[in-house]
Inverse folding.
């Protein structure tokens, strides 16, 4: 007796979400993006399967943070050589490469396993409102209610 009911290919179909982060808090919107990339909003979610959607983030240079994080938060990297520690503040990284701030925040919220790079490849971040994926977008993030998406009409 078969237990499979319905069309599994429709359940695993990847939807394109558009998220405008202008004025939104980095941590709150980052966790919502991570859940969408993992596919936790779908009824077929399984931690070991890759069933998440594409997320296009626009206006990345207008992201908001609480407190004095913009001046005080440090991003660290090391070259694995003695004295190879590099530090950059969030303020300088925002000026230099605003996409990296959102990518690093979402990366830290994803599970640390083999699917992390695959999921991050579906995150597309743009500093302004222009992006080349306008034809692919199927859902737009509603900023008033988290994780509720509105179909584009």
């Amino acid at each position: 007796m078969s237990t499979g009911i319905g069309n599994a290919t429709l359940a695993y179909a990847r939807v394109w979400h558009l998220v405008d982060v202008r004025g939104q808090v980095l941590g709150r919107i980052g966790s919502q993006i991570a859940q969408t990339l993992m596919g936790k909003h779908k009824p077929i979610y399984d931690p070991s399967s890759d069933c998440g959607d594409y997320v296009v983030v626009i206006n990345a240079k207008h992201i908001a943070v609480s407190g004095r994080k913009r001046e005080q938060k440090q991003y660290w990297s090391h070259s694995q050589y003695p004295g190879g520690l590099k530090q950059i503040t969030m303020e300088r990284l925002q000026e230099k490469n605003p996409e990296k701030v959102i990518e690093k925040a979402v990366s830290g919220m994803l599970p640390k396993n083999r699917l992390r790079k695959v999921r991050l490849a579906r995150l597309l971040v743009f500093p302004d409102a222009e992006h080349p994926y306008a034809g692919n977008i199927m859902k737009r993030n509603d900023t008033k209610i988290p994780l509720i998406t509105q179909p584009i009409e």
